[in-house]
Specification:
By secondary structure, this protein is an alpha+beta fold. It has 2 domains: 155 residues, Muramoyl-pentapeptide Carboxypeptidase, domain 2 (2-Layer Sandwich); 65 residues, Roll (Membrane-bound Lytic Murein Transglycosylase D, Chain A), CATH 3.10.350.10. The protein has 9 helices and 9 strands. Strand 6 and strand 7 form a beta hairpin. The longest helix is centred in the first third of the chain and has 26 residues. The structure holds zinc ion. Zinc ion binds next to strand 5.
């Protein structure tokens, strides 16, 4: 009897500490700000100083526009641009978000040049690099729970760092470019193939994403993006050429 009680007590304690640890993770800390900042430095990312610098980067293709689609929209975003790998993140997360809770995800901030720094942001903010995205905090409890759990699980994988902020209520998400790209490249519908094929990281700055529309084929997508069917298949670890509308693909460099 005492043994049974102890097991229950231990289980209860474990459940409480897990919940607390999870909440602390999304609460952010000076250590978390520093980890994110070191990721930006480690990836040699450029911190854009001005809006003009951001637009030059968009012309070069170093930053891409977050156009929105049926799964997400941008709201009051002065500079709706981000690193291509951050766009891959937004597209993939929005796909899953819409499927899980039935509403569009809302992006409230992306790249922010240093000259545009908001009053409450810290000097070590990585928004000027385009590696960070802000997401509106959902009011629907199902969506909120899903988003918290998903961001926490990605954070534990070591590919992003997320903080739940209160004013205004949003999630600040920093995407770690190379770890996240490798994570995406490892994901496939065929787990056997995924484990068998070694990851060859492509150039982070050159990767972009594309959401498959009805009538698309790998060949037509390859043609439009100046790449090949084999390159797209390999970047996405596809074992066959069948794709479905709504699916997000990583598009390798030209
Ligand atoms: Zn932010």
């Amino acid at each position: 009897m005492r043994l049974v009680f102890s097991i229950f007590a231990l289980a209860a304690i474990a459940a409480i500490s897990t919940t607390e640890a999870a909440a602390q993770t999304l609460r952010g800390s000076p250590a978390s700000v520093e980890r994110i900042y070191q990721q930006a430095l480690g990836h040699d990312l450029h911190f854009y100083e001005t809006g003009a610098g951001v637009y030059r980067a968009v012309e070069r293709g170093t930053l891409v526009r977050l156009d929105g689609n049926e799964n997400y929209r941008t709201h009051n975003v002065s500079y709706p641009f981000a690193l291509p790998i951050a766009e891959v993140f937004v597209n993939r997360l929005a796909d899953q978000y819409r499927a899980a809770c039935g509403e569009q995800m809302v992006v409230t901030s992306a790249v922010r040049p240093r000259s545009f720094r908001l009053a409450n942001s810290v000097s070590r903010s990585v928004h000027p690099t385009g590696m960070a995205i802000d997401l509106r905090r959902p009011t629907d409890p199902t969506c909120l729970r899903w988003l918290r759990q998903t961001l926490l699980s990605l954070e534990r994988t070591g590919v992003i760092e997320a903080v739940e902020e209160r004013r205004p209520p949003h999630f600040h998400v920093a995407i770690f470019p190379r770890p996240y790209l490798q994570y995406v490249q490892r994901r496939t519908d065929d787990p056997v193939l995924a484990s068998a094929v070694p990851v060859e990281p492509m150039e982070v700055s050159d990767a972009t994403s594309y959401q498959v529309r009805p009538g698309d084929t790998l060949w037509s997508i390859a043609q439009r993006n100046g790449t090949t069917v084999d390159a797209i298949k390999s970047a996405n670890r596809l074992s066959n050429p069948n794709i479905q509308a709504g699916q997000t693909l990583v598009i390798p460099a030209r």
